[in-house]
Design goal:
With 204 residues, this protein is of the alpha+beta class. The chain has three helices and seven strands, in the order ααββαβββββ. The longest helix has 25 residues. The protein is rod-shaped, with a radius of gyration of 59 Å.
Length: 204
């Protein structure tokens, strides 16, 4: 009985030695693992951020330069004043044109061209105005000569001498018959020109 007990102790010792040898060979860490309950908690030193304040959204300012709190009546008044000023600015920027009026009277007081407004530039003559208007209105006109010596022979197919030896075309400016040809008379702003067919000679 005593021998059997000794044998068991020897076998147990051999087993323990073999187990220890195997553990050393595998490099296992046999140090005791601390219990999770004994590990001290890690305390972070970072400050706990306080609650962020509510974000305040800025109200965008209108680009029109008008305060949003401005009464509607004030806005309407400003718009009306702006519109009322615009036409005055536009009118002042348009240069005033030089104009005259011209008419043509045929035989028997027949109206070939009623009083018509025409624009001109400085230095233009009665002849220039006549040719400009008759071209625009497609009224036939025939003349001879050039420059200050130009002579009107016929208008609207009504020629000199058609109604007699003294018949022909004359012109007047502001009710007066100039003593020079229509190519030599320079017009002025507001002049009233009339070409008239006559059947008898008029003393100028």
């Amino acid at each position: 009985m005593k021998k059997l007990f000794i044998i068991k102790i020897i076998i147990l010792s051999i087993c323990i030695a073999a187990a220890l040898s195997a553990c050393r060979g595998s490099g296992a860490d046999l140090s005791p693992t601390p219990s999770p309950s004994l590990v001290p908690p890690v305390i972070s030193e970072s400050p706990v951020p306080s609650e962020a304040p509510d974000t305040i959204k800025a109200t965008p300012t209108p680009k029109t330069g008008i305060s949003p709190s401005m009464p509607q009546s004030t806005l309407n008044q400003q718009a009306f004043q702006s519109e009322s000023k615009s036409p005055a600015t536009t009118q002042s920027s348009v240069p005033e044109q030089n104009t005259v009026k011209i008419s043509i009277i045929g035989d028997g007081e027949r109206q070939i061209l009623p009083p018509t407004e025409a624009t001109f530039t400085e230095g233009q003559t009665v002849f220039d105005i006549l040719m400009k208007v008759t071209r625009e209105k497609r009224i036939q006109t025939e003349y001879s000569g050039v420059g200050t010596g130009v002579y009107i022979k016929g208008i609207d197919n009504l020629y000199e001498f058609d109604m007699g030896a003294q018949s022909g075309w004359l012109y007047s400016v502001n009710g007066e018959f100039p003593k020079r040809g229509c190519g030599a008379y320079k017009v002025k702003k507001g002049d009233v020109i009339e070409f008239k067919y006559t059947v008898k000679k008029i003393n100028l």
